[in-house]
Amino acid sequence: MSATTFSKLDEMMAAIEAEQPGDLDALEQFRIKYLGSKNIIKPLFGEIRNIPNEDKKAYGQRVNAVKEAAEQKFQQLKQQLEMAAEDAAVQDIDLTAPGEPMPLGSRHPIALTMNRIIRIFERIGFVVADDREIEDDWHNFTAMNTPEDHPARDMQDTFYLQDSTEMLLRTHTSSVQARVMKHTQPPIRIIAPGRVYRNETVSARSHCQFHQVEGLYVDEGVSFADLKQTLLYFAREMFGPEAKIRLRPSYFPFTEPSAEMDVYLGTDTEKDYRLTKGTGWLEILGCGMVDPAVLENCGIDSTRYTGFAFGMGIERQALRLYDIGDIRLFFENDVRFLRQFAAEF
Ligand code: DAH
């Protein structure tokens, strides 16, 4: 009796060895048959009841060996068949298929305009100075010759940080002048592009956030003629070789004398008529000779050095460059608007 029971184990072992599942489906059948909850090895464990005591140990070891053999075969085949399936999937790849298009973004028209301006000034030796948008009162106002009780502070409605009288969103890029002069001695020749903030009503023509490019040139013997020539060069590079400029006397606390510069666009096109309010002249910047007090505030000897500075608005130039009618479009980030600039870098 025990001999036949033992021979059942041999048959089972031989059957397991003979199995040749050829794919993962067949392997699953193998698993159910030998390792599943109702597998055919299980009853052989039950047989141990009928084995005489002296053979029980040997029987137990054999039946375990059968189970282990099934387990091992399953793991081995699983690895083999899975690898084969992966290889087959790789071979299914069509190497001649066209690639997936990679969606490319586009630069923002303000960035494009700013980069144009930067390149123009870089050609005559200006370097970019980048600085913070959250600024302190000293760099934004006091250093720029605009102490606390100065009426010029009312010219720019300032966003202060909550509960602060000291920290603010810079109202102009002129704050970078102070940042640079405090740690650099002349010659200084920088432009500072960036975003500025003012508490103004949003409309088609103005916004509470906008962009400026600041310029600063400090050295021995810098004159108003240098300023004028630099600005004329800029206007011709930006608006064409025929561009005309005019400087109107103005007032800024940080420059003396001060001026505002207009570029002549004419009124031939409706857009130029609108943009220049019918005059043909577009105001694009404020400028002047750096007030000696500003130089001294920042640790520069005003008896030895002079300088000029300017600050220009970017939005108006971008409106003109790209024929856009409303400044708010720059800040809405509607992708249908932005995608139109994909061709330019
Ligand atoms: N900061 C001035 C503004 O935002 C513009 C400006 C005027 C900048 C004269 C200058 C300057 O550097 O010299 O209105």
UniProtKB/TrEMBL annotation:
Subunit structure, interactors included: Tetramer of two alpha and two beta subunits.
Any single biological process term in GO: phenylalanyl-tRNA aminoacylation
The keyword Aminoacyl-tRNA synthetase is assigned to this record: yes
UniProt KW Ligase keyword: yes
HAMAP family: Phe_tRNA_synth_alpha1 (MF_00281)
Protein name from the UniProt record: Phenylalanine--tRNA ligase alpha subunit
The organism of origin for this protein: Phaeodactylibacter luteus
Pfam family, one: Phe_tRNA-synt_N
